[in-house]
Amino acid sequence: MDYFLHHGWAGNVLYFGKFYLATHLPWHYAPFFLAATTPLAILILAMIGLVVAFKKILRGEKFFEITLIFLWLFLRLGLGILPESVKYDGVRQFLIIIPAFIIFAALGFDFILERFPKYFPKIKKWKTQVGIVIVIFFWLLAEFFGIFPFGGSYFNEAVRFAFPNNLDKQFDFEYWGSSYRQGVDWLNQNAESNSTYCVPIAGHLIGFYSVRPDLKSDCSENTDYLMFFTRWAGIPESLENEFHYREKDPVFRISKYDSDMLLIYKVK
């Protein structure tokens, strides 16, 4: 508990279009990101499962087991709600509760499979159940491929409806730099010979990829290309003054959900 309440990281976090210190984020940051990064299909099933589990407890069924799962889910989530706790990186700090959340979703799924066929008595039960499984499977498959291969930037249908574009201006949309792979590929294929490039955010990640031998990293005024993923909270304030990149159109961009993930500018 002491770790979560007194973590030393105090960087800036973009949340609903505003920058906050990680030590001063609103209490709802944790529950919001748990909900916002869960597909609606699973979220709905989990809500049904929570009700089913609560009713089981009231009936004295599996009291000990279900109580443990409730504690697994809500103790860590509760720590994230406390005003003293440091919150950042979206749902990453709460991954420990995902298995418990999925258990409740499974209870909800089982409830739907048993109850829903009763509304269609003329259709054989197994056919209705298979139909439900197929619908949910392809629903989740569509969500998976909608963001692939950048699963760490997933936001569900409700968030995308509320913010149909520019999610990167509302939340830390791209954080881990997975888009740098495609950015390096673009530089390798399109950058002029003996060019220089600057990666001002998490530049060490470029070391995981093979950069063309004649391309050199250089963040001085002599750089030719500026490349960064759109974690706006981490972009140095001096970057615009030094390169005036906002006055230019990017020569390459990666976008998902009509929101930018990575930008490359030719600044010289």
Give your account of this protein's structure.
The chain is α/β, with parallel strands linked by helices and 268 residues long. Helices cover 43% and strands 12% of the residues. The strands form 2 sheets. A 5-stranded mixed sheet has the order 4-3-5-7-6, with helices on one face. A two-stranded antiparallel ribbon has the order 1-2. Helix 3 (40-58) crosses helix 5 (98-115) and helix 4 (63-81) packs across helix 5. The chain is elongated and about 70 Å long.
Structural key phrases:
268 residues, alpha/beta, 2 domains, 5-stranded mixed β-sheet, two-stranded antiparallel sheet, 9 helices, 7 strands, 12% strand
What low-confidence regions span 5 or more consecutive residues with pLDDT below 50?
none
Task: Report the average pLDDT across residues.
Answer: 91
| N/C terminus separation | 50 Å
Biggest sheet, spatial arrangement of strands:
4-3-5-7-6
As a percent range, the share of strand residues is 5-15%
Summed up, the domain count is: 2
Tally of individual helices: 9
How many DSSP E strands? 7
Q: What general form does the structure show?
A: elongated
Share of helix, binned: 40-55%
